[in-house]
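Dear Dr. L.,

I hope this message finds you well. Following up on our conversation about the binding site, I have prepared a predicted three-dimensional model of the protein together with glutathione. For your records, I am including the exact sequence and ligand specification that went into the calculation, followed by the structure tokens. Please feel free to forward this to your student if that is useful.
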Amino acid sequence: MTLKVYGVLQATFTQRVLVVLKEKNVSYEFITVDWAGKTHKAPSYLLNHPFGQFPYIDDDGFILYESIAIMKYIALKYRDQGAPLLPDPGDLKATALMEQACSVEASNFNPFTTPIVIEKYGKPIRGVEPDEEVVKECVLGLDSKLDGYELILAKQRYLAGDSITIADLAHLPTGTIISRVGVTLLEDFTKRPNVTRWWREIYTRPSWQEVVASADAKI
Ligand SMILES: N[C@@H](CCC(=O)N[C@@H](CS)C(=O)NCC(=O)O)C(=O)O
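The resulting structure of the complex is given below.
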């Protein structure tokens, strides 16, 4: 049975799942969640995602939510297709470094980028004014956290070492949107050459360009 993805093409956490599926060349069925109609809050939806969010996947009856968990599941299930995206599961230290890189994203990137996405992208779509104070604070916070990224990426090509992993790919959705709304910290080569080198490398992957194109085509 074809793997089913429940989500929204323009939603950042859904896009994390899609980029891994494209990296692995896995065919899937996409089911658009009617977020405006709040179908994700319906009792039938909550049976599969108790927090009423998207994305989740249904892989032949196996239900999984939380985008990072889904990325890991797909990367592991299709380990031999495309770029591995995860270390050999038997390699304890490489796996720990990949988990560390995932936590780096969750602690030092997403808490700053997601509020910017909400304020400068999500709110205007709904005709709501962004809170510029929140944006300013998050830009300052991200700017300082990216100094840590620069130290990591001066020593290695990707966040978990010299091979790309899901931890790198997890940055793509919100990183792309903040840049589109004018927060170009990831592209400032003079300030942080290694961050910019890394960002350009992941951003231009064909898998990600496909995800962006299908999101833009639906707007
Ligand atoms: N930690 C979750 C976050 C999922 C999430 O926040 N999804 C947003 C869309 S990008 C959502 O469902 N928002 C609607 C809501 O929370 O009611 C993940 O990584 O999957």
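In brief: The chain has two domains: 3-77, 92-218.

With kind regards,
A. P.
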